């Protein structure tokens, strides 16, 4: 069967769901690969590289959607793309089904089997398909690079003939996948890093990376840490203690990277305007939660603002797309692994096995029905 990737149409989206390397792997799985002309250009992958890997470059999106049995994308399809789908086609993409009920309705009505990469269960067996993690890893790394771009000093301390330079002090709030990547990147640049998370079990990971874990002096140290490894909203008492801790940090730190999220909710406000006001001029806040409302109450999504006391607050929402080559490579690999699981006979024919926990978790429309949310037993 034919596996195809169109050019992404969302404004500012530079990633692509297929790379020449994944063309090679998918061909071995028995698929014929198609790519829309220019699909990889923003990720610096020319058409010729796809052709050299054995893919066929098609002239436009209409041809791609008409020919491909499986269409792989990064962003959820827009209405024009939905119009191009057909009965029995498989679509693999980020879909965020909880936020897009209308999209699920139209995809199921058109008989599409939609596989949401954001719904892949986060279990060990599925790590190779975990696109949320591969993109969060990039976001954490890039957050540090963007912070460095706005910061007027070195990260590392130096003693040179021209003077002594202290290391930058970096605070990372939220030590999930993105936070840990930010900690590792800032550490490797020589900064002095400290981090906080409501899940105390991450302390060991933070410390093993050479960073400091900021412990909170609170009777229920595990407040806010819920089942499934994800955070839950904190009690008002815990929150007050947490804000007190951050307020004490504000005059000391040069860079704050916030990554705190709670599934299904707006991002908690943790780095408040009065904390920004306490920061030194030249300091930087990078708010990785900007798309979900922001952890900092001064964040403007998509923009960098400068406060009257000279602090820059970075609210970009497109970190993986800012590293489109790397992000495309990792995302295409996640998808290729999904195709491995969907093609047990390696014969170029996908089998949507709804008894497989990983596939069941990710399939959100199938055979004319909406299959989201999956039964709880299929999520963990
Ligand atoms: P996330 O993006 O949902 O949240 C980011 C971090 O913010 C989390 O560490 C969370 O605890 C923290 N946070 C929430 N509220 C906070 C607050 N008020 N103050 C400070 N920090 C706060 O997290 P994620 O990166 O998706 O990871 C969530 C969980 O999933 C973790 O337990 C992680 O180990 C697990 N995980 C498992 C797998 C796997 O097994 N395949 C893959 C990735 C992640």
Biggest beta sheet summary: 8 strands, mixed
Provide the helix percentage: 25-40%
Count every beta strand, where a strand is a DSSP E run of 2 or more residues.
17
The largest sheet has its strands arranged as 3-2-1-4-5-6-16-17
Computed CA radius of gyration, to the nearest angstrom: 22 Å
User: What is the structural class?
Assistant: alpha/beta
First-to-last CA distance: 31 Å
Q: So what's the overall shape?
A: globular
Average pLDDT:
95
Compounds present? nicotinamide-adenine-dinucleotide
Order of helices and strands: EHEHEHEHEHEHEEEHEHEHEHEEEHHHEE
Strand content: 15-25%
Concise account of the structure shown:
The chain has 380 residues and is α/β, with parallel strands linked by helices. The chain is 33% helix and 16% strand. Nicotinamide-adenine-dinucleotide binds next to α6 and α7.
Which helices and strands occur, and which strands form pairs?
Blueprint: E1 2-5, H1 20-28, E2 32-36, H2 47-53, E3 56-58, H3 61-67, E4 70-72, H4 79-84, E5 90-93, H5 101-109, E6 113-116, H6 131-150, E7 158-160, E8 163-165, E9 169-173, H7 177-188, E10 192-196, H8 203-208, E11 212-213, H9 236-249, E12 255-258, H10 273-278, E13 284-287, E14 304-306, E15 312-314, H11 319-322, H12 324-342, H13 357-362, E16 363-366, E17 369-370
Parallel strand pairs: 1-2, 1-4, 2-3, 4-5, 5-6, 9-10, 9-12, 10-11, 12-13, 13-15
Antiparallel strand pairs: 6-16, 7-8, 14-15, 16-17
Helix pairs in contact: 1-2, 1-12, 6-7, 6-12
The structure holds nicotinamide-adenine-dinucleotide.
Nicotinamide-adenine-dinucleotide (NAD) is lined by residues 122-124, 127, 130, 133, 136, 173-179, 196-199, 224, 229-231, 234, 259-263, 268, 270.
GO molecular function, one term: oxidoreductase activity
Domain Alanine dehydrogenase/pyridine nucleotide transhydrogenase N-terminal: 4-139
Membrane topology: Multi-pass membrane protein
